[in-house]
Amino acid sequence: MALFLKYFSGLQGNSCNTVSYPTRTMCVLQGTPLDISCTYSHPPDATLTHKYWFKWRANQEPRDLQSDSGYEGRAEYPVEETGRSTLRITDLRVTDSAEYRFTFITSYYEWKSILHGTTLTVTGLRVEVTPVATVTEGQRVTLTCITSCPLADKPSYIWYQNNGPVTGSENPENQLVLDPVSPQHAGSYSCSVRNYPHLRSPEETLTVQCTMNAPQTPSVSVSPSGEVVEGSSVTLSCSSDANPAANYTWFKEHEDSVGEPGQNYTITHITSELGGHYYCQAHNAIGRHNSTLLFINVTDKSSSLTTVAVRTVAVLLVTMVIFLLIFLWMRRKRASRKACGQRGRPDTGEEPFPGPEYENLPLTNRLAPAAQREPIEEQDDIHNVSIHISHSENQEVPHRSADSPVQSDRAALQGNDDWTVTYTSSNVCSLRGSTVDISCTFKYPEKQHDLSTTVLETLWFTKEDRNQKPVDLLSDADYTGRVESSCGEISCIGSSCNRKCTLSIRDLRQSDSAVYNFRFKTNQPGGEHTANPGVALTVTDAGGAHEDAGGGLPPQQSRSTTGLNYVVLHLCHLFSDPDLQVKVSPWDDHTKHLDCDSMCANPPIIWYWNGQYLAQGRSIGAYINSINSYSCAVEGYERLHSPSVCKSTPSLSTATHEEVNNFRVTKIGQIKYQNQL
C-alpha cells in the first residue's frame, strides 16, 4: 500500500508539498542489491535546492546516506526523473535493516514528517533439520531453508550436499525431504536461492547411523587347507557381518575357549592331540552367533611321507598314461594321413574275376553282415558340429549337420565346478573349402566374494605369442577374413550363469587342422579361464571337381597275370572325392563286395551305377562286367562322388526303377537289383 505523506506549509494556489512511498516493507536476501523509490512534489514557484535519503533514527538528525560511513561506497542515487527519487544500496548487510525516508529542501521550505517511510529487513539463509541432525537409517528427515522474513517473488531454492548440488532439488519449496534416509544421505547440507547460487547458507551436518544388528553366521577357514602335518603351523580365521563390528572367540568342541580373543587363532606347533573340531563365536552388543564346526586333521610325519610317496607314484602313472594316449593318438593320425594320401589312386589289389558272364542274375543289394565286413582304418570320432559346404559360387552344396552315431566325448575345464567350459564335441572332421562351426558353453558363478561377475572378454585360439599369451583368431593373419566369433545371451539359473559361444571358420584349408581352445576373462580375481584340451579339427582334401564331357567312362582294358583274369580298377571321375573310395573284395563265386570307405566318419551312403542312383547302404554286392561302373557319395553331398571302379565301358545302359512287393527293383540292361523299402 502506498503511503502518502503530505505537509501543508501554506497554499500556493492548489499546490502543496508531498512525498509518497510505493512500498511500505521489504524483505531482501543478505548480499544482494536493493532499490527503494518514492515520488515527491512541491509548489512550482519553489526552487528545489537539496534532496537526500536517510536512515531514520529516533531522536537523531537526518544524515545523508552518501555521507554515512556505514554505507560508504554502497549507497547511491541513480539518475532521477523530476518528482521521483531512488535509493540504491549494494551488498546488503543484516545491519542495514532499518526504516528509510526521503527529504527535500526548497528555496523557502524543508520537508519534514513524522510519518513512516519504507522499512527494510535484510535476512540470511539457515538450514534447519527435523527431527534432529543425528538420525537412524530408515527415518524421515526434512531439511528446511529458513529466512527471518518471507522473501519477495517466492524464489526457487537449490540444495547442496557436501558442496555439490543435489540432483532435482531446485523447486519453489524451501524443503528437502529424505524418506527413508540412508547412510548415503549423510553429509553437510546448505541451500541458496536461484540467481544467487554463491550466496549459500552455512552448512548443517546430517549424521545417519546404520541399523544395528547382531552378527550373521560366521564363516571360518583354515590355512594351510587340507591335511595338516604334525609340528606345522595352522591359522584359523573367522568373519561375520555385524553392526557394531563383532568380536570373536575361538572354541574347541566340548571345551572352553582357546587362546586370546580375536578374529584369527594360530597354533604354531600343532600335535595330534590338538586336532579335532573347532568353531568361533561372533558377538556384539546386540547378540552372538556360532560358526559351523571346522575339522582339523593332524597326521604324523611318517604317514605324511607315505602319502607323498603314494601321490608321487599316482602322478607318475597318470603322466605315463597320458603320454601313451598321446603317442597312440599321433600314431593313429599319421596312419590316417597316410591313408588319405593314398586315396584317389587306382586300387592295385588284383581280384580274381570269373571268366563267364551271367545274365538275369538277381542280386540283393544289402548291408553286409558285421561278421563279413573287413575292418577299415580307424576313424576319429566325429560329433555334432554344424558344417556348411561352399566350394564355389556356381556350385550349391546343402547345409547339413554332421551328426555322428558315435557317442560324444565332451571336454570340460577341470577344477571348481563353478567355472567350466564344455565343448559340443572334442573332434571335428570337415572338407577343405567348407565352413565349420565349433561351439562351447561356459559356466561361471553369478557372484563371488560379494562381487557380481562380469565377462570382459571371450576368444578362440590355436597358438600363443612369444609371451605365452593366446593369439585371438580374429587377429590371426592366417585366418584373416575367414573367422567369426559370436556368443549368445547370458542365462542365469540359481547362482550360476551360462553362455554359448560359436566359432565359424569359412573356406577351410588343410593348414587349419589344429586344436581350437576357448578362453574367457571376467572381473573376478584370477578370472581368466581356458578349457584345455579343446576341439581337434581335421580338414581333409575334397579334391578337384570336374565333369566328363562325354557323360560316360573312358574305356579300359583288362589284363592277365599268370594265366588268371584280374579286374582292373580304374578311376572314373564325376565330381570325384578322393576322401571316399570303393574297396573291392570277393563276395561269392559271381559277385564282388563293394564297401564305401569314408575318412571322416560312418555317414549315410548312396550308391551310383554309371552315374545313376542305385541304392543306399554302406556296402553292396555287385556283378562287375563291361557295362558296370560303381561309385558312392555321402548323403547330402551327392555331387561329390568317390572315384569309380569299373572294368571297361564300351556302352552304357539306362537304369529303370519300379516297386514290387515292398522292394525297390532297379534294372540295368538284363541285370536286376532289389532293395527292400
From TrEMBL:
<keyword id="KW-0675">Receptor</keyword>
<dbReference type="InterPro" id="IPR003598">
    <property type="entry name" value="Ig_sub2"/>
</dbReference>
<dbReference type="InterPro" id="IPR013783">
    <property type="entry name" value="Ig-like_fold"/>
</dbReference>
<dbReference type="InterPro" id="IPR007110">
    <property type="entry name" value="Ig-like_dom"/>
</dbReference>
<comment type="subunit">
    <text>Predominantly monomer of isoform CD22-beta. Also found as heterodimer of isoform CD22-beta and a shorter isoform. Interacts with PTPN6/SHP-1, LYN, SYK, PIK3R1/PIK3R2 and PLCG1 upon phosphorylation. Interacts with GRB2, INPP5D and SHC1 upon phosphorylation. May form a complex with INPP5D/SHIP, GRB2 and SHC1.</text>
</comment>
<keyword id="KW-1133">Transmembrane helix</keyword>
<dbReference type="Pfam" id="PF24518">
    <property type="entry name" value="Ig_CD22"/>
</dbReference>
<dbReference type="InterPro" id="IPR056386">
    <property type="entry name" value="Ig_CD22"/>
</dbReference>
<feature type="region of interest" description="Disordered">
    <location>
        <begin position="338"/>
        <end position="361"/>
    </location>
</feature>
<protein>
    <recommendedName>
        <fullName>B-cell receptor CD22</fullName>
    </recommendedName>
</protein>
<feature type="domain" description="Ig-like">
    <location>
        <begin position="218"/>
        <end position="299"/>
    </location>
</feature>
<feature type="domain" description="Ig-like">
    <location>
        <begin position="127"/>
        <end position="207"/>
    </location>
</feature>
<keyword id="KW-0472">Membrane</keyword>
<dbReference type="Pfam" id="PF13927">
    <property type="entry name" value="Ig_3"/>
</dbReference>
<dbReference type="InterPro" id="IPR036179">
    <property type="entry name" value="Ig-like_dom_sf"/>
</dbReference>
<comment type="function">
    <text>Most highly expressed siglec (sialic acid-binding immunoglobulin-like lectin) on B-cells that plays a role in various aspects of B-cell biology including differentiation, antigen presentation, and trafficking to bone marrow. Binds to alpha 2,6-linked sialic acid residues of surface molecules such as CD22 itself, CD45 and IgM in a cis configuration. Can also bind to ligands on other cells as an adhesion molecule in a trans configuration.</text>
</comment>
<dbReference type="InterPro" id="IPR003599">
    <property type="entry name" value="Ig_sub"/>
</dbReference>
<dbReference type="Pfam" id="PF13895">
    <property type="entry name" value="Ig_2"/>
</dbReference>
<keyword id="KW-0812">Transmembrane</keyword>
<feature type="transmembrane region" description="Helical">
    <location>
        <begin position="308"/>
        <end position="329"/>
    </location>
</feature>
